[in-house]
Amino acid sequence: MIRVATYLPLAVAAILAVVFFWALSGDRDPSRVPSPFIDKPAPALDLAALDGGPRLTKAAFAGRVSILNVFASWCLPCLAEHPFLMALAKDGKAQVFGLNYKDKPEDAKAWLAEHGNPFTRIGTDRNGRAGIEWGVYGVPETFLIGPDGRIRHKVVGPITNDQLKQLRRMIGDLGK
Amino acid sequence: MRNASLVLGLVLATALTLGAFIAPPPAALAVQPDEVLADPMLESRARALSKHLRCLVCQNQSIDDSDAGLARDLRVLVRERLKAGDSDEEVLAFLVARYGDFVLLKPPVKPTTWLLWFGPFAIFAVAGLGIWAASRRKRPATAPAAPLSAAEQEKLDALLAQDEHPPSRPPSDPPQRPAS
Questions:
Q1: Residue A2: inside a domain, yes or no?
Q2: Is the previous residue joined to B40 through a cis bond, with omega within 30 degrees of 0?
Q3: Which of A61, A139, B21, B155 has its CA 20 to 30 A from that of B168?
Q4: Residue A147: which domain range?
Q5: Residues of B with Cβ-Cβ distance to A40 under 8 angstroms
Q6: How many CB pairs under 8 A join A and B?
Q7: What is the pTM for the complete model shown?
């Protein structure tokens, strides 16, 4: 008993060290809210198109791998990830849709004219309601949707190089 | 002695933990006049619900406290749903379906959160059991002392006798210096 008590603090410290190491290592970021939609059907979507064309609805995702990127002209990180979205659009393996979040249409159009438009269709979400419907809590966010209309992956914050690779891999797998 | 300090440590830890819950929350000023519902009953329900919903932008504030745009949107949404006749549970379920349990400031009790909810009590129970077991345990009995030999007994008796009758010395006698 005495011996156990002597080594107890050391044992507790060792266990804590393992827990802390696990919590601090890798890509763990507790401020990132995991989406409850992963592997679930995409939530409702029905938005007026930015260019006045056909509305952006869930029907647009049917049958093909799709990406839905939440962006805004006022969002600086969106600019940072913009080349990656252009690259994904250029790949042509997934349809890239935009959800223009709480933005003025003229600002969004000017921003796209300046930096390039990777989107096949863009829905405008002036009041952010569609964003709430999709569990968006910041811009940018990117959803990957399978041909079956289920959300397969969500990137919170700007797409990084590693995430671009992961998205491409997942798009390849879903497209099979 | 070791147990006493352990108990003290546990009591201090409990006091600190409880203190974190007892501390009063800061006054809420985020709710704007244009958001407030005309019906005071609905408004008080909305306020109560908002206090338990996390602002996902600032994350350690409720939407009732937060000035973030999304917090305002969610406050308005909560009020809209209450006006549409939703129960409190339906409003919470609506938001949990979109943002997950994380939107609730108080995590629900379910198997994945059992460790969170009951872990501290389990640790206290284990520690308490340990202290109880340690206090019950008798010190290992030492081997009975070997009886004194005749010579030792004689020496001891002599010493004890000396103690009972200390050699008398005149009270005024000053302390003796050792001879140099």
A1: no
A2: no
A3: B155
A4: 37-175
A5: none
A6: 43
A7: 0.73
